Amino acid sequence: MKTVSGIPVFNGGAVDNAFGIVIGRVFVQESERLGIEERIIPTDEIENEIIRYKTAVNDTRIEIESNRDTTLESLGRNFADIFEAQIHILQDPRLLRETENLIRTKSLAAESAVAITHNAQIEIFRKLNNTYIAEKINDIRDIEKRVLRYLLGTRSESLRKLTEPVILLASNLTPSETANLDRNFVKAVVTESGGLGGHTAILAAALEIPCIVGCGNFLENIKNGDIVIVDAISGLLILSPDDSTIKKYQKIIDSSSARIENLDELRDAEAITLDGTKIEILANIEFPQEADNAIQRGASGIGLFRTEFLYLTQESEPTEDEHFGSYKRVAEVMDGKPVVIRTFDFGDDKESNKHGESTPERNPALGLRGIRLALKRWQLFRTQIRAILRASIYGNIQIMFPLVSTVKEFRQARYTAVKEFMDELEHDGIPYNKEIKIGMMVEVPAAVVMLDHFAEIADFFSIGTNDLTQYVLASDRGNRHVSHLFSSSDPAVLRMIHSAVKIADQTETPISLCGQLGGDPMRLAILLGLGLRSISCTPSSIPRIKKICRRIMIADCKRIAEKSLQFSNASDVQDYAIREMINIIPDLMNKIF
Ligand code: PEP
Ligand code: MG
Q: How many angstroms is it from 470 CA to the middle of ligand 1?
């Protein structure tokens, strides 16, 4: 038995594996090496060869457009834009010209010329070395493969020919491969490369396929048909699992499948604990279309709308009207329920170099990201804030700033930037909600420590446990080499949360929590015990979080939280929390651990 760890892209899971855990047989997607050799053609065939090349490009365009249209229908515009961007690359005049030139001047066969020009472009990008570029390379490879398939008359149908459920393992998946995955058969995806902001992760999450990316090299020793376990909650791929491990995970799957059927009934139910405390359960979303999921799963609002994905799925900067359209749509779907729009949080894992500094930062997590970047990129910030303000008359929209570290920063963002943008709208007679609430993410330790000062100027707080954990434990949230340190159950993180909640209560400032920790059923009692009464999590986690809320008492939660704060390490907290949850709600939890 061997365990490989990667970055989990778990969003609550699909209906038949509610906890993001899948046991199954492996299908290894061979990285396609089409093995193009340099083939020279007779001079009198050159013109025909160029026509053959142009026809292949045209056929590829038609294929990508069809992918774009299907994706538009199933997942919406932002996802479809991934393919729109591919069409731009495919039709890049320089690429077309250079390929044609090679055919003409070197008498190369079209496929040889395509392989050379695409590789050259990839090499240029590779030297730039950052996440955004990695995605770009993936796009170019995808296009190259398609054009070559048309030229050579071979099409890889392997993924389309699946007839039974599999766990798909690949070095990397191209956007088209991910968007075309058949959910009937592909039960989970694990890739060697990729990061959280990558297309594979974004699309897999939207398709609700449990997924782990960035696992490093692990494919050499695996063959089709091997049994593995994918734990997309913890980001673990277990190879050749022994019987007892399979049994343990099977229990989790059985119990979640049994329970998921009646979770839909919870949509309209309130999350009220057995001793009558009301808990607000909100949704985290990345795309406007997900507002519908949030409503379907019974969210009482959007606690975190991560807007950077609006930028990452299209080539050009979204215009003010495009932003406005997205925000208005969410506000209208939510129909008066709160919609907290977080201003862009580029940087660190969210592909900094596209919007941030042009030179790569040595330490991006501590660099120009979140509100720091917004205050430097005034026009980018202005476009977004104006759009949010304009949309604010269509519902209960609120603004949230990410990665706030100092009071001065928040003041600048609120009283200089937003005020200036409000004045502009006022001047132009454009309506907006003048009372719009403006709050901040609490995800930097300094913000927790200084929260009493922030309470004087922020309308609300939301704890981002993903970054808070990263910064409290000084362990990169996306780095598999330090993932053993990165745990939001660590008592150091819990003490930070506790302290933030206490200050928020004392200053009567509303506080919620929107990091991944909020969707974890095992640690919900701790959060409620620490005093949180509002949690925001992925839409698909909402029913089970509600269900657990309705089965516990705040008195028990307080006891569990107090004890958890006293442990010296994360694993003791986790073991203890699981034991307590099993004691309190055995019928819900017993089958799990
Ligand atoms: C967080 O840091 O916990 C958070 C919710 O924001 P993000 O994951 O987008 O950084
Ligand atoms: Mg964050």
A: 10
